[in-house]
């Protein structure tokens, strides 16, 4: 009993002390929580904001350095808070007091595994393309102001600066009104023809077929070396043989031109009256055989679904009759393009511009081929491993060739094999017999 009373007395005397300790204990706990939040939430946020502010200041510094008068621009189009994202690029738009507007394009490639050297090569190639287009007098591409393909610059990343093309991206759907479609297509065909005429270049010994076969040969070598397990040797040699039918004979030893490479609707800038103001994003543009520059653009092409290289394989007996069949709307658009080209051919004939087939007449013939889509997919497969696998899984759409004689025989594949081995750089360590062994159909 005495002990119980003693404990109560001690608790009563110490209760004020616990009363004062509780606030301190609570404050300390709050301080710990605050420090934890700063470490894991606020500090990364503040660090990101600091990096963002530094990026903005560096972008402005680069723009100022490209002006002779040292004028300072201001960000516009809200890109100081949210840069425009196009593909792998972040775009900052800056405007000077005299109205000059530039786009600073920084290809981040954050979602890819591209090494720094590859990113530098991509930027350097685009800068070279834009410079060549400007020199050729093609004014539909952005004008190159400056840039740096290295990582050793104020921004710390490859970048390029081009003039800003005012307008909005083309909205192209099946519901686009008929008259609007024709206005856009008429302008686009004229721009495509201008690109062909201004960038055409004759090269001694150039062969479109050899150019494409060299690309396939490089892929064959990687398949043999085990670097492309998604593909097989036989399919690659079939592809090599089919190129002989996809490339037009009269365009084999011909010209090369600059091809955009990804001319989708959102690469076309228009004004409110549907006048095309420019073609943007020339990152994938390269000098290719002229036949590739005469094909239908993406907004008029038939694109196979699910050509991802990692997509599940399909049985090659699957029905493919509709794989390259245009819709009725697409057919109508294409017919208008062909009609426009035909009118230009008649105009040339009336004016007596040329006696030989002009680029307009040649493009009209190429686009009028019954198997134009099959030809395009065979050629495009040289540049897309996913499309190559898609086509191979469907027997290269043999039913779409319109000519059963185009299906490669064993003798044809033997010829392709011999040509491949004749390149000494690729024949090291590989005999003809060993290579032919890889062409045998896999059992099971």
TrEMBL record:
It comes from the Eukaryota. SUPFAM superfamilies: Protein kinase-like (PK-like) (SSF56112). Residues 90-287 form the Aminoglycoside phosphotransferase domain. InterPro entries: AGP_Transferase, Aminoglycoside_PTrfase, Kinase-like_dom_sf. Coiled coil: none annotated. This is Aminoglycoside phosphotransferase domain-containing protein.
